[in-house]
């Protein structure tokens, strides 16, 4: 009796082992196809997201690397459609490793440009805060009644807006640097992740490339947010320049004051218009062509009233992610 029971247990265990072996084989075949499919989706996202940054800021070498990665992605995609999942996964993983290196460089370029733009604005913001302090002589003159036209204005009326705009300027500067600080922290975490979590010579989990690429994308988004804060400041500092748009670009639908494209905005310095276009996810060269082909239209009806720049907030800022191993 015991022998029969033992025999049943043995046969049951043997059957389970056989089923387990079959299931493992099936899981493996599904796994490599699923892995290849995931890499197709991931690489498509990372390649597409890098297209505009590369067109706006990429060096010749970086653009060549980017095009080579796109070619490798297409090879891996071809293998995937053939059903050759092993070769597809191999090509797509290698392309993702190269994307990781390229994103690492591009994210640093974004941090450097954002730092430069914000640091140039700090001096102007501090000088405005001092000059238009509520206890300053200039502000007291603003508040002093005069007998017009006998008494002339004792200040430049075009600067009066700084009395109430200076707080918005200061907040945008603070938010811009806050976004920049978050971008630096997230990038540092991505760059140092492998060093902190893997010993020398240890095989790296492919999941970390997706993790780092997501972080590098967050760096770019945060730098764009920081730059947008900077351009809000430029639009306030150079507020009166916007009237030239009413004069020179009336009738041009691309230069309406309420939705002013950066290439038409005289308040933004020319050397940073490319950054302003990039914050809107626009290819700057295309915007220049719009201005060149359709831009400087004279005459027409009045344009809408100017809008005061709205501050960026940090409520929807990108967050660094944890790798799924």
What is the strand and helix layout of this fold?
Elements: H1 2-57, H2 60-82, H3 85-131, H4 137-143, H5 162-197, H6 207-237, H7 243-248, H8 273-279, H9 284-295
Describe the structure concisely.
By secondary structure, the chain is mainly α. Helix content is 69%, strand content 0%. Helix 6 (207-237) packs across helix 8.
Give the rounded overall mean pLDDT: 77
- Could you describe the largest sheet, including whether it forms a barrel? none
User: How many individual domains?
Assistant: 1
Could you give the count of β-strands?
0
Strand content: under 5%
Short descriptors:
single chain; 325 residues; mainly alpha
What does the model show?
This protein has one domain (2-295). Helices cover 69% and strands 0% of the residues. The chain has 9 helices and no strands. The chain has helices at 2-57, 60-82, 85-131, 137-143, 162-197, 207-237, 243-248, 273-279, 284-295. The protein starts with a helix and ends in a 30-residue tail after the last helix. Mean pLDDT is 77; it is low at 1-29, 295-311 and 313-318.
